[in-house]
Amino acid sequence: MPAFAPSLLARWTGGRWTTVPAAELRGFTQDTRKLTGGQVFVALKTDKRDGHDFLFQAMASGASAALVSRAAPDLALPQLVVADPLTAFQAIAREHRRTFAGRVAAVTGSCGKTSTKNLLALMLGGAPNVLSTEGNLNNHIGVPLTLTRLEPGAHGWAVIEAGISGPGEMAQLAEMIEPEFGIVTLVAPAHTQELGGLEGVAREKAVLLRNLRSSGLGVYPKQCWDFAAFRELPRPSIVAVPEGENADSPRIVRFGLKWSATGTEVNIGRRRFGFRRVTRGMAQNAVLAIILASEIGISDEAIQRALSDWQPAKWRGELRQDGPRTLYLDFYNANPASMADSLEAFVSLVPADLPRLFVLGCMEELGDDARRYHRELGRSLPLRPQDRAYVIGGEAEAVRAGALDAGHSADRIEVVSTLDPVSSFVAGFEGAVFMKGSRRYELEKALPVAPMAVAGRGMG
């Protein structure tokens, strides 16, 4: 963990110390449960809690200092008093990143950010030389938590995931990250309620590439080129174009995809790369990572090694075996594009003779189009007479209505308000289980026991 001089933190934030810490500080957290000695506790205020109420607990848990907007006078803990702890923390992250002489890449998009970030980090050499975003720390709090872990003496690269849900957030993240390289995986209906439809999503995602350093390079798929926000970027990025399609861009790279029963093959010109079986969308994201790594100067051999080692992140398209059940688990992302991509892959991968169970959590933040998208999902469900589906969430009835529109029997799709009946059904089910939904539904609670993974399997 890098060391931060108290005087430097005061200068970067414009704050004042109640008592100057006697030693350098090492790391930051806003969670008293994760505090370790030497760390700064960031007293964030949210709709649900005020970090200032936990200052004494932070000291008891080992904090060496606190970043606050109002000091606790009876607290024997050095406190850096600033106008707003979050803004100050982001300033610390931005200034610390500017001390980093290594190179920084950022990944954003409506689907596949985490898996793409993990793959690119592997291609660049992996840990310990590469710092990459852990878990879902990709927002206005997670990005500074990640950037303040940068160690100039230990890291040569940082690969940062950037996730947003509202307008203006990408500019805030890009200002902290200051990426040299960037990947946008896809523009799809996600957070459209806040961002103003697909065009709003595209405008926000394109901000990352607009803020690349002058020496930098961006890569994105042909699908993004259809949006004016990408065509109007001041510097041309590389557009990845599937064979047989075109894009009127000055820089394009054509690619082809092939699948076998066990693997995926990418063709870029005369170059061939192979890796495990993944969804179509994730294969395209792998292409983006391959293109960027190649432009950076990573050899084909190193790229292939990374592809061979690449595994899905937990609960992000995992394919697992649990006794008589084959489980597809994706509990972190659900929008129309990722749902369609995952359903296509699931049906093509699991044996056709197995009965299928679909456990669906609704897709969040789709605005006025939410009901339409959920009804379309119901129409697209590949239900057969021996299959069954459960749906939970605010638009579950729209999914059921869509399934009935498609001619499916009413007793094959059930709307539930809790996961209890789903868990009971899964426990006795033998066949293939597809589980996907937005994070808020915590679909993992429908699993009767923790499943055992099958080595080498996964869907990205």
Features:
single chain; 460 residues; alpha/beta; Udp-n-acetylmuramoylalanyl-d-glutamate--2,6- Diaminopimelate Ligase, Chain: A, domain 1; UDP-N-acetylmuramoyl-L-alanine:D-glutamate ligase; Protein-Tyrosine Phosphatase, Chain A; 3 domains; seven-stranded mixed β-sheet; 16 helices; 33% helix; 21% strand; globular
Describe the structure.
The protein has 460 residues and is of the alpha/beta class. It has three domains: 6-83, Udp-n-acetylmuramoylalanyl-d-glutamate--2,6- Diaminopimelate Ligase, Chain: A, domain 1 (3-Layer(aba) Sandwich), CATH 3.40.1390.10; 100-309, Mur-like, catalytic domain (UDP-N-acetylmuramoyl-L-alanine:D-glutamate ligase); 316-453, Protein-Tyrosine Phosphatase, Chain A (Alpha-Beta Complex). The chain has 16 helices and 21 strands. It has helices at residues 6-13, 55-60, 85-98, 113-123, 142-147, 169-177, 192-195, 197-210, 222-225, 228-231, 280-296, 300-309, 336-349, 370-380, 396-405, 420-427; strands spanning 16-17, 28-29, 40-42, 65-68, 79-81, 103-108, 130-132, 157-161, 181-184, 217-221, 238-242, 252-259, 263-268, 271-276, 316-322, 325-330, 356-361, 388-392, 413-416, 431-436, 452-453. The strands form three sheets. The protein has a nine-stranded mixed sheet, with helices on both faces. A seven-stranded mixed sheet has the order 19-18-17-20-16-15-21, with helices on both faces. β7 (130-132), α5 and β8 form a beta-alpha-beta unit. α6 runs parallel beside α8 and α14 (370-380) packs across α15 (396-405).
